[in-house]
Structures are given as C-alpha cells and as structure tokens.
Amino acid sequence: MKNSLIAIGLTGALLSTSSLAVDLIGHTKSKSMVSVVSEVSGMVESADFETGSIVSVGSVLAEIKAQDFELEISKQKANLALVKADLTIKQSLYNRYNELRNKNSLSQNELDIAAADFDAAKAAVALAQIELQKAQLDLGSTRVSAEIDGYIVNRSVEDGAWVNQGDLLYQVVNIDVLNVRLLASEYDIGELRIGQEVEVWAEANPDHKVRSQIKRIGVEIDPATFAYPVEVEISNPDHLFKPGMSIHASTTLTGSLTHSNNQS
Fold first, then answer.
1. Among 92, 113, 140, where does a domain finish?
2. Mean of pLDDT values over 101-117
3. What was the pLDDT predicted at 123?
4. 99 in the same domain as 27
5. DSSP readout, the chain?
6. What is the per-residue pLDDT for 257?
7. Does any domain span residue 45?
C-alpha cells in the first residue's frame, strides 16, 4: 500500500511538472536594420555590393560622380574670396568714416550707412563660408559608407543610375543579436513571465540550442494569429540563426547547450 502511494505521488509530481512546461513556435527577426539613402543627387558611378554581401563599418557601398561637387567647391571658394575682398574695402571705409566723424567732418547719416555696409559685408562672408562648408559636405556625401557591420539584405541602386537626395540605395542588417517573436495561446500565457528562461532552437538546426530569457509579453491578442506575442532576444555571434527562420522554444531546460545566452 505504501509503495502504491509513493508511485501515485511520483506520477502526480511528474504530471504536474509536465503541465508547467510550455512549448512555443515563432520566427526570428532582425533587430538592427539600417536603410542607406543618398544624401545628394547625382549619377551613381559604382555600387559594388550585392544582396548577401558582408560589409563592415566604413565600407564604401556606393560612389556618386563627384565632378559637379568639386566644381561647386571651387565656385564657393572663389565667391568667398570675393566677399572677403569686399569686406576689407567696407571695413576700411567704415574706419575712415569713423575718424572723420570724430573730427566732425562727416555726418552721422553717412557713418551709419558705412556701418550698415560693413555689417552686410560681414554677413556675406559668413554666408559664403556656410555655402562652402555645405559644398564640402556634399562632396563627402558622394562616398556612401556603411554605418554598421552586417549583411546587405536589399540593393535598390544600379551603376550609372541617377539618384535623388533621399533615395534608398541599400539596406544593411546586423544579426549579432536577433529578436525572436513567439506565439503563446491563452492557455499558455499564464505559465509565462518576463525574465523566465527558455531554450530556443531553429527548425533547420534543432541540435543548436540557445538559452535566453523572455524580454516582453504582449497583453493583447494578435487578431491575425489569435495568440499573444512573446519576445526573446538571442545572441548570435556565429550567425547560425538567420532572420525569418522558424523557431521553437521551450521552458523545459536541458543540461547541455551549444551556446548559453543568459541575459539580465
């Protein structure tokens, strides 16, 4: 009788533990995607990276013909020299008029006009400096560089094409860390909590399991899936997981993992 009670108790405990285990499915999503746009208008001389290419920070993704921008810099430098020369003349005239006014050899109105011309010349120099700086920035923008390490996931530009300011050239994604969006039924949601550890693996590689923690739990059901979204972040240094992969997750933790991802 005693042995029977122990057996029943063990069976009940196992069933109770099993009932707390939650298995979920979902997909990986990229966390860091950057849209690379043209900051100037012009003709694309080269765009050498294709979809799937690996890029690093600073990699030149595309080059826009720079000749017109170089000419604009020369033009603005010449304009700056002109307004500086005019400023020298206006300053000299103002100083002379000021001396004459101090000797009562000039009317106050004439001195005021000279002062206004001097101020206008200073403003013209400041404006010319801004225009030159803008031209230099535009020339620098003809070399379009990657801002993050990652993969090219979209190419929207061709060699020889004309692009306008703001046109999309590339999209670059970093997958060192991925989001996993899981779906939980209304029956499972009560067994989940933020910070709870889960094991995650891709359907394509079930032997590679990653341990992580639940970061977010949705409070409203998704009308498209009739499930609650549960989000997890996984470290992916070897890039074995790819965005869009079908993912399985479980709150049942095994003792041995291919990679541990304990997050606070």
1. 140
2. 91
3. 97
4. no
5. -HHHHHHHHHHHHHHHHHHH--EEEEEEEEEEEEEEE-SS-EEEEE----TT-EE-TT-EEEEE--HHHHHHHHHHHHHHHHHHHHHHHHHHHHHHHHHHHHTT-S-HHHHHHHHHHHHHHHHHHHHHHHHHHHHHHHHHTTEEE-SSSEEEEEE---TT-EE-TT-EEEEEEEEEEEEEEEEE-TTTGGG--TT-EEEEEETTEEEEEEEEEEEEE-SS-BTTTTBEEEEEEEE-TT--S-TT-EEEEESPPPS--SEE----
6. 55
7. no
